[in-house]
Amino acid sequence: MPNITVELLSGRTMDQRREFVAAVTEAAVNILKARQQAVRIVFTEIEKSDVANGGVLESDK
Questions:
Q1: Among 28, 48, 59, 61, fewest CB within 10 Å belongs to which?
Q2: Is 55 part of a structural domain of the chain?
């Protein structure tokens, strides 16, 4: 059973999440030969104040 963990900045819509899980699930089924029902995807939302890139907080951009 593929367990896929996705970390992303908060603010994505439910439609974006639905589209993403459909595409990732399809890829796991095709590439890994997993059963669709066995593909598990977990989202972890991260606030912009919790992430820095290049020495700058995302919330400061």
A1: 61
A2: no
